[in-house]
Design brief:
Pfam family, one: SBP_bac_3
Helix content: 25-40%
Mean pLDDT: 85
Structural class: alpha/beta
Low-confidence stretches: 1-48
Radius of gyration: 19 Å
CATH superfamily of the largest domain: Periplasmic binding protein-like II
Largest sheet: 9 strands, mixed
CATH class of the largest domain: Alpha Beta
Number of domains: 2
Number of helices: 11
Strand content: 15-25%
Strand order of the largest sheet: 1-6-2-7-12-8-11-9-10
CATH architecture of the largest domain: 3-Layer(aba) Sandwich
Order of helices and strands: HEHHEEEEHEHEHEEHEHEHEHH
Keywords: Signal
Protein name: ABC transporter substrate-binding protein
InterPro entries: Solute-binding_3/MltF_N
C-alpha cells in the first residue's frame, strides 16, 4: 500500500471530521515544498492520534554499533513515508505531525539505535527510489514483491491482506469477480493497482468494457472517490481499509473477505547488509520485549502482528 499521496471538495456530510482533517493535510509531494516533520515521542497535537510513547526505549549499544556511518553519522534516522495511509502513517489534526503505527515503529527503531527520528512525508511511489540517498530507510506499508526486491532490501515487520470497499450496501452492485466497466479507485504504485491493471488487461483481452481505473497519489483521495460516489469501489491494504471504514461512519463497508495476506517490510538500500542486519535485530528486539505488540495494540492492528523479522523473505511469483 500504501500506504504518496490538490484536494478535491467533498460533501462534509459524507465523511467524519477526522477523515476531513486527514484529507486537508495530504497535499504532500516529493518536491522542495513538501511537508516534512521531525516527530519526537508523543508530539502529536491530539490524544486520539498520540500513538505509543517511545520515550522509555533505551539504546542497544550492540545493535546500534551495526549501523554504518552513512546512516548513523548525522545522529538522525531519516524515514521516508506516505502520510496519507491511516492508520499506518498519516498526519495528525495539526496537519503536519506524522502519526500511525509505522511512525511509532520508526521512533522505536531510532530509540534502539540511539538516534533522533525524522519522518519525511513523501509520495508513495517516490520512496523506494530515494532510499539510501534522501532517506535512510523507507517505512510505508510496503508489501514485499519480487519487483521491489530488485530495487531494495527488505526487513519484514507486519502482514496484511487487501480489502475491497464500497459504499455501505454496495449500491452499484459491484461484483469483484467481474470488474469490467466498473469505476475502481486505487492508490498509485501499490500492489492493488498492479492487480487492477492486470484485471483490466483481461477485460480488454475478452472484448469487455475496460475498468475505469481512478489512480490517485493519495489514499485519502481514493477513499473520498468512493465516499462521494465518484468511484464504485476501492481496493487497499486491510488495515487502511478498515480504518477508512471506521472514520467514515456509516458511509463505507468492506465487500467480501480479505485477500492475499502478505508480509510488509522496511525498505533499505539494496546491498546495504549492515543496515539490514541492524534493522532486523532492532525489530526483533522490539518484538521480543513486547514493545512491538504494544505499538500495534495502540492502533488496533495487532491482527497483523508477526513474531519474526526477516531479511528479504521468499515471495511467490
Amino acid at each position: 500500500m500504501s500506504l504518496s499521496k490538490g484536494m478535491q471538495s467533498v460533501a462534509a456530510a459524507t465523511l467524519s471530521a477526522a477523515m476531513l482533517i486527514a484529507m486537508a493535510a495530504c497535499g504532500t509531494s516529493d518536491n522542495a515544498g513538501n511537508a516534512s516533520a521531525s516527530a519526537d515521542s508523543g508530539s502529536s497535537s491530539n490524544s486520539s492520534t498520540k500513538g505509543f510513547d517511545t520515550s522509555s526505549i533505551k539504546k542497544d549499544d550492540a545493535i546500534a554499533a551495526l549501523l554504518p556511518d552513512s546512516v548513523a553519522g548525522d545522529g538522525t534516522l531519516t524515514v521516508g513515508t506516505d502520510t496519507s495511509y491511516a492508520p499506518a502513517e498519516f498526519l495528525a489534526e495539526d496537519g503536519k505531525t506524522p502519526v500511525g503505527f509505522d511512525v511509532d515503529l520508526s521512533k522505536a527503531l531510532a530509540a534502539v539505535f540511539g538516534l533522533k527520528e525524522k519522518t519525511v512525508s513523501s509520495t508513495f511511489d517516490s520512496i523506494i527510489p530515494s532510499v539510501g540517498s534522501k532517506y535512510d530507510i523507507g517505512i510505508s506499508s510496503f508489501t514485499v514483491t519480487k519487483e521491489r526486491l530488485d530495487a531494495v532490501d527488505f526487513v519484514t515487520y507486519f502482514k496484511a491482506g487487501s480489502t475491497w470497499v464500497t459504499k455501505k450496501g454496495n449500491p452499484d452492485k459491484v461484483d469483484t469477480a467481474n470488474l469490467c466497466g466498473v469505476k475502481v479507485a486505487v492508490q498509485t504504485g501499490t500492489t492493488q493497482e498492479e492487480e487492477i491493471n492486470a484485471a483490466n488487461d483481461q477485460c480488454k483481452a475478452d472484448g469487455k468494457p475496460e475498468i475505469d481505473i481512478q489512480s490517485s497519489k493519495l489514499q485519502t483521495d481514493v477513499t473520498t472517490a468512493v465516499a462521494s460516489g465518484k468511484a464504485s469501489i476501492f481496493y487497499a491494504d486491510s488495515p487502511v481499509a478498515g480504518y477508512a471504514i471506521e472514520q467514515t461512519g456509516d458511509t463505507l463497508a468492506a465487500l467480501g473477505d480479505d485477500t492475499g495476506v502478505t508480509p510488509e517490510a522496511v525498505a533499505i538500500k539494496k546491498g546495504d547488509s549492515a543496515t539490514a542486519e541492524a534493522v532486523q535485530k532492532a525489530i526483533q528486539k522490539l518484538m521480543d520485549d513486547g514493545t512491538y505488540k504494544k505499538i500495534l495494540d495502540t492502533w488496533g492492528v495487532s491482527s497483523g502482528a508477526v513474531d519474526k523479522a526477516e531479511i528479504n523473505p521468499a515471495v511467490s511469483e
